[in-house]
Design a protein that fits this description.
OB fold (Dihydrolipoamide Acetyltransferase, E2P), 16 strands, 6-stranded parallel sheet, about 50% helix
Amino acid sequence: MKKPGIIFLLVVFLLFCAVLSQAKDVYTVRINGAINPPVAGFLGECIEKAAKNDAEALVVLLDTPGGLDSSMRDIVKDIMDAAVPVVVYVAPSGARAASAGAIILLASHVAAMAPGTNTGAAHPVNIGKEKTDEVMMKKVVSDAEAYSKSIAAKRGRNVDFAAKAVTESISIAAKDALAQKVIDVVADSTDDLLTQIDGRTVETKKGRVVLHTKGAKKVEIPMPFKFRFLAYVSDPNVAYILMMIGIYGILFEFYSPGTIFPGVIGGISLILALYAFQAIPISYAGLALILLGIVFFILEVKIVSHGLLGIAGIVSVIIGSVMLVDLPGSPLAISFGSILIVAVVSAIFVFGILSFAVKAQLSRVKTGSEGFLGESGIARTDIAAGGKGKVMVHGELWTAIGDEALHEGEEVVVTAVKGLTVKVRKKGG
């Protein structure tokens, strides 16, 4: 009687080990901040990696104020085309999936939120080189509404919310989102989320998949330095400051050739700023005002304006900076603090560093033979008109010639230098 019992327990144990050996990992990734091209590229790589390694699912812990429409659409396409289930989890408490984040949440195979989070407010914001007219803006909103509704319908979620999030900028809390079928789960933690979604069936590119996530091992995918660096540079405030550093560095190198360091730093900063502005459409009017301010700065050190041109340049730079990315309250807006920092640095640069560099460049040479021109000395011998004699200049005795008669002890001024002979005249003459 004991043997069958032992055999039964052994079989159960072996089956349990087999199940454990087949258990798949759940990959997790954290996205904090604006949705931009580096974030879209990173998420795309994460989805590919999870699918390649046959992960049970990819959990995206999301906290974003929104971002670029183009980047959001790239992420949505990657999720829709994913061979692995993608779970978007708005967490921790206090996080949000606003604007572009709301559409990404709707597109996920499983949409989840932590208590104390919210989603919505996905109305398109005008951003570009020119202001969009009313008719064009209606087209943009209509396109975004249709896009949001189609995604919600595809995932079987609340289409009415998807439409109003775009057209009316409504936002909703986690508890209400669950009640209104905007999301699938409200979970206190990642472990709670994996427990709740265990056994759920989702539709992926490979077909219907049953999730086995309860107790699964979590493997976090850190954002590589490349994407972290590019995401940081793509921040409008950072890109804006890099642009100004680039302009000032090149200007300083232009007025003080050979310093090298300002030119190198300026060139690198300007290239990084141009990369960022490829992803953030900017206003030509704002850029033109900033460049006009730079012209005023150049004129300030060339023309005696008693500071008026410098002040005009600072004002022009400030107004241009405000207009450069005109999106108040948006994650893509340039903060007032950044503009203030640039204004202060501009004032220091124009009235301090640049003026000093230009004055140094325009000052009279004080070394070599040219440095003797205009220098004073004392005649050590009489010098006949057209004749030669000796003069003391800079503590050195020089052979001197003059067009006029000079007497020993008289003060003289050097008017020319030829080899080891100086030409002098009577000081004050």
